[in-house]
Design brief:
With 283 residues, the protein is an all-alpha fold. It folds into 2 domains: 1-90, no CATH class; 94-283, Hypothetical protein af1432, CATH 1.10.3210.10. The protein is 67% helix and 0% strand. It is built from 14 helices and no strands. The chain has helices spanning 15-24, 31-38, 42-52, 66-90, 96-117, 121-133, 136-144, 146-155, 162-170, 174-185, 189-198, 210-237, 252-259, 263-276. Helix 5 (96-117) crosses helix 12 (210-237) and helix 8 crosses helix 9 (162-170). It starts with 14 loop residues before the first helix and ends in a 7-residue tail after the last helix.
Length: 283
């Protein structure tokens, strides 16, 4: 099945979402300004509360105030929730593949955040976003071709991953699809480069300079975290997951060495991931 990139539907940020992004782009905004705009949109309000009460942020008491949810999430993750709301509206089609990809993306975001936290706090926040959007190319295809993607999901196995079946079914140039989505939705370049590396897509040629080298190093680190998160996710979920062949081919000892993590840190990440993912959560 062939398709033109321009023919695909993509998520669109709501009017309230755009106003929130405009507020956050100012130098002198306050979180109260954000809360006022969020309160105008029931969908965004509900998403903020749901995300703040997810295993990523869960506290002893449920967060019931939108203002408290916004303060808990912070500016960076308010932006993430705006993106999630757009994606969730976009993927409202009845599709097993879409729901499985949502669940999988959330699991990888949570595990990636825990891995990042073992390295530094800023990386943990960045990995939350990258983890959530790492399947955005598959999500886009599933939202546009739900029946075909549901059939692929049924055939998914450890021997033949969803990514391989997807590439065969759509004669897919994944790099072109990811680049198009990144450009259209103004996604962070480091996150998108990390996702491409996760799929084994070659790095861009002709990039040079200190800043480019730092960006490349950051993308490589994020890609390694995503790969380790997929190995942990597969261990925790067994057969109840979307098997993505390309993502689990790097040996865990090599990934630990790359990220400078110990076996004891890995065990801690696995235990905390198991605890937080014990209750099934849907975005």
């Amino acid at each position: 099945m062939k398709f033109k990139l321009e023919s695909l539907n993509l998520p669109k940020v709501s009017a309230a979402g755009m106003r929130i992004l405009d507020v956050l782009a100012k130098d002198d905004y306050s979180m109260n300004d954000v809360a006022v705009v969020v309160a105008e949109d029931p969908t965004l309000s509900g998403m903020m509360l749901k995300y703040a009460n997810s295993p990523l942020y869960r506290r002893y008491q449920e967060v019931t105030s939108v203002r408290n949810a916004i303060n808990l999430l912070g500016a960076k993750n308010v932006k993430l929730v705006v993106t999630l709301a757009a994606m969730r509206s976009f993927t409202s089609v009845r599709s097993v593949a879409v729901e499985k990809l949502w669940e999988h993306s959330f699991s990888i975001a949570l595990i990636s955040k825990l891995i990042g936290a073992q390295i530094n706090r800023q990386l943990a926040e960045e990995m939350e976003f990258t983890g959530i959007i790492h399947d955005i190319s598959s999500m886009t295809l599933a939202a546009n071709f739900p029946e075909a993607c549901d059939e692929q999901l049924k055939l998914c196995s450890e021997e033949q991953g969803y990514d391989q079946l997807e590439a065969q079914a759509f004669e897919l140039d994944r790099e072109a699809l990811i680049d198009w989505i990144a450009t259209t939705l103004h996604m962070p370049s480091t996150s998108m480069d990390a996702i491409k590396q996760l799929y084994g897509i070659d790095e861009k040629a002709g990039v040079s300079g200190k800043a480019a080298a730092n960006d490349e190093s950051s993308a490589q680190c994020q890609a390694s975290i995503l790969a380790l998160a997929h190995n942990i996710d597969q261990q925790l979920h067994g057969n109840d997951l979307v098997v993505v062949y390309q993502h689990t081919q790097q040996p865990v000892p090599k990934l630990l060495e790359t990220l400078n993590l110990s076996e004891s840190q890995l065990a801690s990440i696995i235990d905390e991931s198991r605890e937080k993912l014990g209750e099934r959560f849907m975005l």
